[in-house]
Amino acid sequence: MKTSLALLATVLSSVSSLVVPRQNPKTTHAYASGRLFNIDGKTQYFAGTNTWWLGHLMSDADVETAVSEIASTGLKVTRVWGFGNVNTAAGNENSVYFQILNETLPGGQQINYGTNGIARLDSAVKTAEKYGIQLVLPMLNNWGDLGGIDTYTTAFGGNATSFYTDAKSQQAYRNYIEFIVNRYKSSNAIFAWELCNEPRCHGCNTDVIYNWASETSAYIKSLDSTHMVTLGDEGWMAPPTGDGSYAYSGAEGVDFIKNLGISTLDYGTFHMYPDQWGYNFTWGNTWIEQHDAAGKAAGKPVVLEEYGAPYANNKTAITLPWQNTIVQDTSIAYDSYWQFATVLPSGTNDADNYAIYYNTTVGSDYQILFIEHAKAMDAKPAVANQ
Description:
- The protein has ten helices and 18 strands.
- The protein has helices at residues 60-73, 118-131, 149-156, 167-184, 207-223, 256-259, 274-277, 283-298, 315-329, 365-379, and strands at residues 8-9, 31-33, 36-39, 42-44, 46-50, 77-79, 85-86, 99-101, 109-111, 134-138, 190-194, 228-230, 268-272, 302-307, 334-337, 340-341, 348-349, 356-357.
- Helix 1 packs parallel to helix 2.
- It is globular and about 55 Å long.
- 47% of the residues are buried.
């Protein structure tokens, strides 16, 4: 999802209580096991979520609160932005960023080792280790929020479509990949490295992203052959699949089925926002089933990595049927609602209209769509539907 850079700072009166860290049973990294994942030493279905902001929190107490509540919910994975770029430090002194991209710098880039830099992502990884939560770390953003592809093109030239083949941008991107992978590859909190949040190459032949994903994922595997790698795309399909409408047109330069065949991508991802894409909410069930079928054909796990409902009063009514389809009718390995939210000690609030706040009250959206859904996924027999 495209997230807002603005921080909504609100002083909140109540502070969420912390849970005792659960014992961390992981002795090996998660890996694909047929169409499912082996995680925590067991091949199983499970539920996850998205907390893009976790590595951009300035307070360790905030990080602790969020991760502890994710763990107490029964979720196993959360997706956290592993990127944070600016083109100049000036004006960003009060923001978290991980690197500066600017051709005036040696090599065109510089890691931020200050208190508002990579130490914040370190805190997220360390806290995830403590609570037995695993992280998906995208290392690039298609969108401009928090410094995406546009920060590379501002520094090195080009645009959102030429980025994928531009030598200078790709070298800088690989330098950053090398830094992140080498920094965290020994951590048992890493679930997977992700190439990009929602990569698009509008109007491009689908070979552009296919080739870029093939080469970049192979590069990551050369740095770390243990952890999984995934693309992070929205799951767009291309003719002859589908009815030719937007999600099936190939207009964004992505072909989910073709990309699923890349040997150095361990699993496929897809996102689902019918309200943003011009479809009704019931179409979501079809979108889920189509990606499940593609995963079956490829023999790989498929993850519904982002989905949600933007309306305050009917999130369960819209979303629960999708979760029922996942649990009852498909072999979707895990799904991650966009997004988890909670009351943080500092009052920082990066929630959007899709967010559901931590709430154990029976009948609340959180209790139904997070807690009960996690239980349902955990209880599902670890056998792929035939």
